[in-house]
Design brief:
Layout (H helix, E strand, L loop, with lengths): L3 H7 L5 E6 L3 H4 L6 H9 L2 H15 L2 E7 L13 H6 L26 E5 L11 H8 L3 E7 L4 H11 L3 E10 L3 H10 L6 E3 L1 H14 L11
Parallel strand pairs: 1-2, 1-4, 2-3, 4-5, 5-6
Helix pairs in contact: 4-9
Length: 224
């Protein structure tokens, strides 16, 4: 368990970003290509908690990034070297560029100051995308990871962030995967070894305390 003081140091709004992973309509929305995962994200409360964290991050001056996975209609540049990619190409709701499927799913909102990072290939929301240089330009050293799925993309993001030298924080109630008990096991036995594990409520309370203390600047990272 991390102390309130340690969490406050890690989640300093001036050096922290919140990353939502594949929280797009075609994945966690009501017309998802992956209905079991979408149902779990909603029934577990993870999607609602992510929406709360996104709003809380903006209030605290924390930069929000949304990582979206998409494909060209012709499939150019997409991976074909794993069973997962071949299955994704056959899904009934294709994650094509510019379609509703790749828009962020309600109740999560996207504000003008948010950054949406899109990728056409691979498993990771971080490696091979613009996330790392954007974080560095913004002066961020900690990344709060939320989203789906605990099976692949979320752990991939956490490992890549740690390998790049960032501190990873995971809100365990803002992450979903299938089956539900796998998510808990993944967090406890794997992610807890490399990331700080907390809850959405603890994160929001931390940011509220920092605002009340007035001890840290709350301007968004990268603001002149």
């Amino acid at each position: 368990m991390v102390s309130d003081e340690q969490l406050a140091r890690q989640l300093d709004p001036t050096t922290t970003a919140l990353l939502t992973v594949e929280c797009q309509r075609g994945v966690v929305g009501t017309e998802s290509a992956l209905p079991e995962l979408a149902a779990e994200a909603r029934s577990s409360g993870a999607l609602h908690q992510i929406a709360r964290l996104v709003e809380g991050a903006r209030d605290a001056g924390v930069q929000v990034l949304h990582a979206v996975a998409e494909r060209r209609p012709d499939g150019r540049g997409a991976n074909r070297n794993a069973r997962l990619f071949r299955a994704a190409a056959r899904l009934p709701v294709p994650q094509h560029i510019g379609t509703p499927a790749v828009r962020i799913a309600p109740p999560i909102t996207v504000a003008d100051e948010d950054i949406v990072v899109r990728r056409l290939h691979g498993l990771s929301p971080v490696a091979g995308t613009d996330v790392d240089p954007l974080l560095r330009n913004l002066g961020c050293r900690t990344v709060l990871v939320t989203g789906v799925s605990a099976n692949v993309a979320v752990p991939n993001a956490v490992f890549d962030l740690v390998n790049l030298g960032y501190t990873a924080v995971v809100a365990r109630d803002a992450v979903a995967g299938v089956p539900a008990d796998y998510t808990a096991a993944m967090i406890r036995h794997t992610l807890a070894l490399v990331a700080t594990i907390t809850t959405g409520d603890e994160v929001l309370a931390c940011w509220q305390r920092l605002r009340a203390d007035g001890g840290r600047p709350l301007t968004p990272p990268g603001t002149p």
